[in-house]
Amino acid sequence: MDYKLDDLKVWDDKIIELAKKNKLDWFDINYEVIDYQEMIGAMVHHGMPSMYSHWSFGKSFEQTMNRYNVGTEGLPYELIINADPSIAYLMRDNPLYLQILIMAHCIGHSDFFKNNRMFKNTRPASVIQRLRAAKKRIQGYVENQHIGIDKVEKTIDACQALQFQTTKYGQERRPHSEIYAEYVEEINNDKDGRYTNFNLDLYPLEPDYDLLGFIEENANIPDWQRDIVHVCREEGQYFWPQIQTKVINEGWASFQHYNLCHELELPDELHLPIIKMHNAVVRPHIGSINPYHLGFHLFKKIKERHGIEECFLAREVCYDASFLRQYLTEEDCVELNLFSYSTKKTLGATVDDVSDERGWKEVKEDLIAQVAGGSIPIIYVDEIKRDKMLIIRHEHEGRDLELKHANEVVEYVKYLWNGPVKFYTMIEDEPWEID
Amino acid sequence: MSIFREHKTVADRTASDRRRHKQKIEKAIKDGIHHIVADESIISKDGKQKYRIPVRGIKEYRFVYGSNGKQVGSAPGKDIKRGQKIGDPPPKEQGGQPNKASGDKGEEYYDIEITHEELAEYLFAELKLPELQKKQLANIENEKLKRKGYRSRGIMPRLDRKKSAIARIKRMKAAGFDPDAAGENETFSFHEDDLVYRHYKMEKKPCTNAVIFFVMDVSGSMSQEKKFLARSFYFLLYQFLRLKYETIDIVFISHDTTAKEVNEKDFFEKASTGGTKASTALTLANEIIDKKYHPSAWNIYMFQCSDGDNFQEDNQKFLEEIKKFESYAQLYGYCEIEPEVSWISDSGKLFQLLRPMRSNKLKLVRIQKKEEVWSSFLDLIGKNSKENV
To answer: Residue A5, Cβ neighbours under 10 Å: how many?
Structure first.
């Protein structure tokens, strides 16, 4: 290492000064300087200092080790969490220019976490403590001879399978009594007979898209299991905003590191490798979407077309779908040469639409459908029938589910619900039932 | 303002998760071991080596979409047209049949890291090593007493008189007692605290050097299974001797009608279809001993695997060379792996030939399947694992 910790502080102070001038507003960052092995470990835990134990993290470790031995995409070893104060990791062996780039990038992320409204309910000031407490409790269940590791593990397996079948904005669950009262009100004021046959005994009264929350509230399971469901659900809710904002978040952070590094007046021996690294990070990936590329491109264009104020507005109110819908123009689609493709049974992967005059809108819609957690199917609770049978449905919007996975997940739902379950979806335009 | 912290963690935060993960895919690892032992150089690598073996991981299931959805890609500067093919067609099983009967969407394989110790452990489990023997194997060491510092307690033979005397004098000076000025009956006696004893510690000290000759008959065909058997066998022997000796040299000799010293890779991979002259290997080994490994400085071992017969005319020479080798060596082990048995006898010619020469130093074993590797290994090193070698 040709620099010391104090050198990093000096550069960070300069970056902070410039960032403040640029009206950025972020959670203070605590940087942890760690080595390669620890970095992989931290990444596997999504940057959290404490995480409950589960074999999936072991698996993740081996896979991540593989990936980083082979090559990297995006900014190498960038890791920062949504917390107040925030924690970010710097790898000890990284050259100075890379640390500077990463620190500038991190300020962008921290500013995004603090200001983007998708993150409003993530409770960043307490997330680390909550996870640490959860880890302790779960460890207690493992060591409890009446429970033990196998049951705990199976429960976590099941919860992780359903982790993102929960609310996206961390909103509170509405109590049944409240919804019931509303419907009673509607029925009493029913002038045009809309609620004539409405069955007030339905439970839930409306489709409940928070599957994990429903299970936590209503399943007949022991308290320790309910607690694990609660922990995993909170974790899912905590990470949902990050899933929804991958493009805009990386775009914003790249936009910030780009501006800050230019304003830093760096000597050539630092400035040139930073430019080179930046270009590598935001280069397009042929055949897929690089969130750094797309996000950075858009922020540059927004600044050009609408001014810097609009950029700040976007970073506050948008998530990936609205970001693209609002700001991705035909010109962008053409410049980025976006195209959509799908895999046919016998033909393989072929191009469906390209960004010409008649196709660009379709391509844009396809892109919007795939971002912001668009690859996570929507599942809801329909009702509980007699004998405690749980009816859950897939809200089909055109894409069929992968059946082997679906079958396995339904088994997990049965385990957590601790009762019979029927699952309905559509496969190739025909109703399909799994039980 | 940011805070910077150098993090020097001793604990590995994912260690227990990785252990648990390994436990869960133990079966996949053992299946993978088969390949690593068959393919990788495991004998000539040193103990600190780590291996990455591909294993079929545990699948994690979530609600996901099948493959009929649309995806968007970006290709600036490239010419993309509607209908253009951009990938290979999906594998045959999915074609024609609707998604309903789909098999796994491509089993996920990834590398998992195991240490040399874990390799040995998984291998031993694969070979059905009884638990007790595993421990014995780990404990075969020579122990020696070694000097290590001083203690204030001990046994009389270990009393260090000089140091004890010095301690007394120090105490005397501190008390202000002047022996010269003292009267005849005034003495300053020894106190228990003055006494200093020499301290010894039991230290495991491997004794000197060993050279192992691994000899293989490559005139027959070496299938994956046979390679696995031979290599596991050699690996066990190597592990066993490694615990006894500080330095171990390994010499790989493969032969058909001529013998050659090779590296581990070629040793297990080469195969030829010539005849067999086993004596050539022994001759070469003896030559190497004369050149590099004087029996007074080296403990010499040879383990020979064969799956075939030997040329009749060569038998005499073979016996002569064996006798010569025996005079230098600690142990010669001959192992028959899945012999090509003739209709007449139930063991290969070499086995028969060596039978009358069986002794403490010359052992014969047979291995036909992996369950026999361990018992043959025990036979070879002698059931009494504490024998002086």
So the answer is: 14
